[in-house]
Amino acid sequence: xxxxxxxxxxxxxxxxxxxxxxxxxxxxxxxxxxxxxxxxxxxxxxxxxxxxxxxxxxxxxxxxxxxxxxxxxxxxxxxxxxxxxxxxxxxxxxxxxxxxxxxxxxxxxxxxxxxxxxxxxxxxxxxxxxxxxxxxxxxxxxxxxxxxxxxxxxxxxxxxxxxxxxxxxxxxxxxxxxxxxxxxxxxxxxxxxxxxxxxxxxx
Length: 203
Hints:
Elements lengths: L2 E6 L3 H12 L4 E7 L5 H8 L3 E4 L8 H11 L4 E6 L4 H9 L4 E4 L4 H12 L4 E2 L1 H9 L7 H11 L4 H8 L3 H14 L5 H11 L4
Parallel strand pairs: 1-2, 1-3, 3-4, 4-5, 5-6
Helix pairs in contact: 2-3, 4-6, 7-9, 7-10, 8-9
């Protein structure tokens, strides 16, 4: 029996290279590949993969949100995150989403097939150092709304833009940003964005 794999990666060349790498293994086969996060669950329900290899930063729906939905709708499919993000906060979110594996894109190519096999067998495939970092990191102190406001700020939106986008007053947005800076012990808004990215609280 060959392990059936779904790939989710938005960069065409990377997706093709990953598929080719996995197809070199006699016991692995790629049954589907998608470039958008919102295509993951519908494609998985159609193709019934054993393992979904997902990037986090995808158009439409991010990989962790898709992993949560995939676990709910197709629990027989186990998930391996393959990403360039090593923030401990992201790994904690991944574990909460029932992800079985978490692999960085700079890992040796042979590690991918090994991790897929481990995940397919119901084992964990996570770098011990990443797990230790995740264990030691603090919980995200920001509320969902504060995180949303900061995400808009990280994309370059000013207070007026954020207010219009979220249907809030400028004063409310400013209060949220002040709260974010205070909670993260940041010097300013830019420093708050850096801290949140480093911790994996923002994609």
